[in-house]
Structures are given as structure tokens and as C-alpha cells.
Amino acid sequence: MLIFSEYQELGGQVRDEDVYIKLERDALKLLNTATQMFYIRNNIDEDPDQWRVKMFKLALVAQIDYTNDVGASTEYEYRRKLLRACPLGCYVCVQSEAVYGHFKKR
After folding, report:
1. How does strand 91-94 pair with strand 85-88?
2. Dist. CA 49–CA 96, nearest whole Å
3. pLDDT tens for each residue of 9-64
4. Confidence band (pLDDT; 50, 70, 90) for 1?
5. Nearest Cα to Cα of residue 53 among 67, 65, 64, 42
6. DSSP H/E element including 80
7. Which end of the chain has the least Cβ crowding within 10 Å, N or C?
8. pTM for this model (two decimals)
9. Is 104 within 8 Å of 91 (Cβ atoms)?
10. How far apart are CA 65 and CA 73, in angstroms?
11. SS3 assignment for 12-58
12. What element of type H or E holds 75?
């Protein structure tokens, strides 16, 4: 929906086109859900409401930049990044690349 050069013209911060492609795909999934699939059911290029088109594209730019900043573009990636240390009683759940969610005494 948004080509890389248009993304950059709208102020996008990602400079690597390969990174952009993945982030744009994931951001579209989120925005399509939020808009009840409006641009799945309607052609964005044929939408007479150019303000709506621009706002959708700006939202896409913002979502791509946000997911790039936090380093996660899917719900799974985001939750995995958040799980650094979560208190569980007298134990702390610690994320480990080797052992996901092992416990150690505080």
C-alpha cells in the first residue's frame, strides 16, 4: 500500500528497504484490523477521500517507525521483548535465549 519512496517522503525513519518491507507487512495487518479491513474491501488508489488516504498512510508510517524503534513488529515479538524479568512471588522469571523462562531465586 505504501512504496518505500513514499514512506520516506512522509517522514519515515527506516533506511533499509528490506527492513521496511517486513515492518510494512506487519503494520498493515494491524491497521487493516483496526480499520475493519477498509482497504482490503476498497481500493486505496480509487478512494475519493484523499484526507482518509493520507491519514491511513501516516498511521502506517507511524506504526512502522514505532515497531522499528521497539525492535518488534508482531504481538509475539513485542511480548517476548517485554519478558525480561517479571516478579513471581519470591522468584523472578528471567528470559534466556537458551532456556526460555527459567527461574532463579531473588
Report:
1. antiparallel
2. 49
3. 999 999 999 999 999 999 999 899 999 999 999 999 999 999 999 999 999 999 99
4. confident
5. 42
6. helix 75-82
7. C
8. 0.70
9. yes
10. 10
11. CCCCCHHHHHHHHHHHHHHHHHHCCCHHHHCCHHHCCCHHHHHHHHH
12. helix 75-82
